Recover the amino acids of this structure.
């Protein structure tokens, strides 16, 4: 199978403001994404997992060139996205779409659902005016909504319905690849299950490729073929889903997994509670960026001074830990 | 059996809906009853719009009136007194003193222009008439108790100087400075990252054991309830639909809503699979369905469920712990055969 999307050494730094109204010493740049690489095969899903400030959303936005990268390369179906001129980029954008966490803030409150779905069809010239109504009805049905929803406004919809409209809008231009940025985080659990099932169905039917960005490892388990865990702008572990859930090699992945509250009162409580907060991406710790919070019993001086590279520790399984051969 | 510390009986909190949004009265909380015993954690679990937060706000009469009002006949009994009948001054002596509350959003609940020390000390100055200096020392003690490093320096910080997790610790310190008998924690970890959530839940467990208070834990997360509550009340459409001890509820979910909710939770220990989804969505509080409020989404519903609203029925297993469910299946268990 060939990779549809290939990300190589992606870097995104934000220049920090100078103190005192532009005078004085400049602050350290904020290293939101600091050398991230991965690829996704056509028709597959990569779950990109991390907590607030890990850089996972910036990765998604930079791939779509909604933000310009500081360095690195993204190849999509053989095209170098960062090298494209505006014209070809626009054509490519049709094939790459995004579904956001909060469809309420990404839908125009003054447009009906039908108008919101019609807009991308018009911009990309994908339907004639005689075809619009039929195409919109078809899209709504595909995401499990009655075609009568076309005349409603976003405020008349529930959160789950709005997210379905957000998905329909992404589908309208018939993309191959969708960045799903926390698409179910704002939804109640019963509705979240509906939307996750819908995303899985659409993927099977349309052979879609997903980058599924989430903070919830349990949600990712139900949709992803492979998982990459981010911490402070870097991928600390990347592996096929079955492999990482069975045996997480990085102590941060292990702690994340153990922190998920299980809906089972008898679940063995060997919870690893990390101490402290995530450090600022403007001042990442020396050596391994996770060392100040790391609970690994083998942690030592080497972790403080030497940054562990992301390396293969088992078939297809990469981890950035000096002691990945001795998982916790 | 010991006496309950807090007894909520037939609580009804309604809101007059705005014109334009369909009008009518939103029956947000519609006849909720439960008891909270000393030292225990009662989890109230439900999805958005089920009335769990309005229930918690009603206990301390924090529901804005109008548009909200608590109906006559509702009783919230604490220490032998009905809180709903107290004069404002008497209620203030209870609120933040004997019953304290932690909210979801520490950033919006903290005042940005006062130091965290001032805000923690405020309740002790008001309720215990401590001097400013003594109250400040108490605030530093509280910061130590909730695990904030360098408390003597952090006491002079402003909320924006702290991380989300640290702010939630400050909220907890504020709530606990008067050693309340009851702590109401309304989605205390929902806005936090999962590793920070684990820290805060562990802290709440530890403080409860040390201080011996009762906790009303309000959450949408069945995982949080499973790990931290002794008993659970599941809410749907303004009512308690099922109540049981935590292990009993997870072992024998009886109300079809509880059953569906448990099946809908993505599990980290289950292989990749299709999730069970509850069809449809939570109805609007201005128009609860007739009969059983869950019947339009229920896989087992029959005509009785459409016609007649079930009361909370005793579903306790022989020799088991108390268990009740607001469902006709308790009387006709043979009908538990899914139609869809």
């Amino acid at each position: 199978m060939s990779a549809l999307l290939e990300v190589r050494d992606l870097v995104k730094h934000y220049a920090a403001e100078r103190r005192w109204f532009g005078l004085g010493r400049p602050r350290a740049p904020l290293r939101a994404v600091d050398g991230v690489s991965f690829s996704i095969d056509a028709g597959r899903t990569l779950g990109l997992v991390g907590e607030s400030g890990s850089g996972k959303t910036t990765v998604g936005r930079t791939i779509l060139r909604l933000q310009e990268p500081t360095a690195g390369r993204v190849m999509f179906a053989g095209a170098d996205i960062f090298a494209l001129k505006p014209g070809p980029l626009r054509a490519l954008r049709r094939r790459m779409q995004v579904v956001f966490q909060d469809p309420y803030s990404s839908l125009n409150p003054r447009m009906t659902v039908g108008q919101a779905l019609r807009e991308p069809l018009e911009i990309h010239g994908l339907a004639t005016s005689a075809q619009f109504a039929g195409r919109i009805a078809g899209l709504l049905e595909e995401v499990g909504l009655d075609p009568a929803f076309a005349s409603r406004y976003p405020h008349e919809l529930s959160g789950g319905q709005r997210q379905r409209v957000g998905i329909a809008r992404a589908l309208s231009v018939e993309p191959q690849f969708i960045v799903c940025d926390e698409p179910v985080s704002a939804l109640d659990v019963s509705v979240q299950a509906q939307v996750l099932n819908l995303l899985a169905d659409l993927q099977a039917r349309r052979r879609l490729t997903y980058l599924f960005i989430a903070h919830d490892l349990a949600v990712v388990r139900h949709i992803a073929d492979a998982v990459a865990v981010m911490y402070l702008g870097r991928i600390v572990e990347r592996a096929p889903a079955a492999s990482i859930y069975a045996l997480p090699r990085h102590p941060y992945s292990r702690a994340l997994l153990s922190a998920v509250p299980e809906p089972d009162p008898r679940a063995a409580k060997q919870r690893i509670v990390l101490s402290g907060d995530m450090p600022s991406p403007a001042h990442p710790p020396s050596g391994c960026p996770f060392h100040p919070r790391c609970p690994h019993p083998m942690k030592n001086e080497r972790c403080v001074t030497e940054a562990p590279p992301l390396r293969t520790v088992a078939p297809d399984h990469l981890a950035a830990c000096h002691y990945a051969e001795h998982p916790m | 059996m010991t006496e309950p510390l807090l007894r909520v009986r037939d609580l009804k909190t309604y809101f007059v809906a705005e014109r334009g949004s369909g009008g009518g009265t939103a029956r947000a909380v519609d006849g909720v009853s439960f008891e909270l015993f000393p030292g225990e954690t009662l989890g109230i679990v439900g999805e958005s719009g089920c009335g769990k937060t309005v229930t918690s706000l009603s206990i301390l009469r924090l529901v804005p009136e109008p548009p909200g009002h608590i109906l006559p006949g509702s009783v919230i009994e604490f220490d032998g007194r009905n809180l709903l009948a107290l004069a404002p001054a008497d209620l203030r002596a209870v609120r933040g003193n004997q019953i304290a509350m932690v909210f979801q959003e520490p950033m919006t609940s903290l005042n940005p222009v006062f130091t965290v020390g001032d805000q923690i000390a405020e309740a002790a100055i008001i309720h215990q008439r401590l001097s400013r200096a003594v109250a400040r020392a108490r605030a530093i003690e509280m910061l130590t108790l909730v695990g904030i490093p360098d408390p003597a320096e952090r006491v002079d910080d402003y909320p924006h100087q702290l991380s989300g997790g640290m702010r939630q610790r400050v909220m907890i310190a504020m709530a606990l400075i008067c050693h309340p008998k009851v702590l109401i924690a309304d989605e205390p970890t929902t806005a936090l990252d999962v590793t920070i959530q684990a820290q805060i839940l562990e802290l709440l467990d530890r403080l409860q054991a040390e201080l011996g208070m009762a906790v009303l834990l309000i959450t949408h997360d069945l995982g949080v309830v499973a790990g931290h509550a002794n008993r659970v009340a599941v809410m749907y459409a303004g009512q308690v639909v099922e109540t049981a001890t935590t292990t009993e509820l997870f072992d024998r979910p009886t109300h079809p809503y509880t059953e569906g909710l448990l099946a809908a939770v993505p599990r980290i220990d289950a292989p990749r699979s299709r999730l069970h989804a509850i069809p449809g969505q939570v109805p609007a509080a201005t128009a609860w369905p007739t009969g059983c409020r869950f019947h339009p989404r229920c896989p087992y519903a029959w005509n009785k469920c459409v016609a007649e609203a079930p009361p909370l029925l005793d579903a306790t297993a022989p020799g088991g712990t108390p268990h009740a469910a607001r469902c006709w299946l308790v009387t006709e268990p043979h009908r538990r055969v899914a139609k869809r």
The first helix of chain B runs from residue 52 to 59.
